[in-house]
Amino acid sequence: MVLEATMIVVDNSESSRNGDYVPSRWEAQSDAVNLIFSAKTQANPESSVGLMSMGGKGPEVLVTLTTDFGKVLDGIHRTKIRGSTHLATGIQIAGLALKHRQNKSQRQRIIVFTCSPIAESEAQLVKLAKRMKKNNISIDFIAFGDLEPENTKKLEVFNENIKGGDGSHLAVIPPGPSLLSDTLVTTPILSADGVAPRGGTDEAGADGGGGGFEFGVDPSTDPELAIALRMSMEEEKARQEREDKAKEPPKGESLEGIPEENQPLLDRQGEASASGGDKMDEDVKESNEEAKEGEKKDGDGDADKMDTA
After folding, report:
1. Picking from 112-126, 154-168, 197-211, which range would have the lowest pLDDT averaged per residue?
2. Which residues of 98-118 are buried (b: 16+ CB within 10 A; e: fewer)?
């Protein structure tokens, strides 16, 4: 799978307060960020994801490139909705964050959420797109919210000037009853990472009834349950392996400490053979001696009775 370093840029401007997306524009972005992180790290565990905002007084790096999902969640919770967006500046700062990635073999990608009017002109965006392409940075746009023709045209021009071998995509998602993340998985931004739709519309989900996720549970929504199910499966597998090993016959095991009996315990005359062991000979001798002593005592008793008579 592709090894990538991805910076996610969220739109925390005042426009993200609107509730035309379920449950709101900001909450929809937060859910989509969780999905993107899971998709990137599941596609390749060595991929890393960072998070930054572009609203307020200026762009802010919330989380540097990491594989720790908890840091990304903390960054989302610390973000405050305020001000207007700074699209061009945010993309430039995201590019600098990718430039300082530790693993230089990772491909560079920026995913930008935008739900507010774009103040930059087409000429500025074209210049920025060419610069990002020169630095081998792919940029994906997720446009939702304010989908005015002027906004979408600017994004289309930017996308046309940055398209390269690694692919830069533009996803325009209008309001609807579905979650933003559910619509996002059907776009080329995440479908290339092999993410299955949550509704089970793919073949794996249709067969298993679990939306294509392992055990039918989405790890991004309930990680504890997914881990518990995986541990239970591993324990059951280990138990079955132990039972299979116990049922297998021993191979080449020697019976140490047990003397082999090459001769029968009794010979042809019915008497104990020499190979029967010293213990058996001693038992036979003791039995014979006790029998003789008993007969002698009986004889003495009969003689005394006769003398008395």
Report:
1. 197-211
2. beebeeeebebbbbbbbbbbb
Q: Is the pLDDT assigned to residue 293 strictly greater than 70?
A: no
Torsion region of 197: left, alpha or beta (phi above 0 gives left; psi -120 to 50 gives alpha)? beta
Question: Could you give the CA distance from residue 90 to residue 80 in angstroms, rounded to a whole number?
Answer: 16
Q: Tokens representing 15? A: 């426009």
Residue pair 91/112 in contact (Cβ under 8 Å)? The answer is yes
Is the confidence at residue 101, as pLDDT, over 60? yes
Distance CA 126, CA 165 (A): 18
182: how many CB neighbours lie within 10 A of its CB? 19
Q: State the residue for tokens 């103040």.
A: 119
Distance from C-alpha of 186 to C-alpha of 234, rounded to nearest angstrom: 32
pLDDT in tens, 220-257: 566 667 677 777 777 778 888 888 888 776 655 555 55
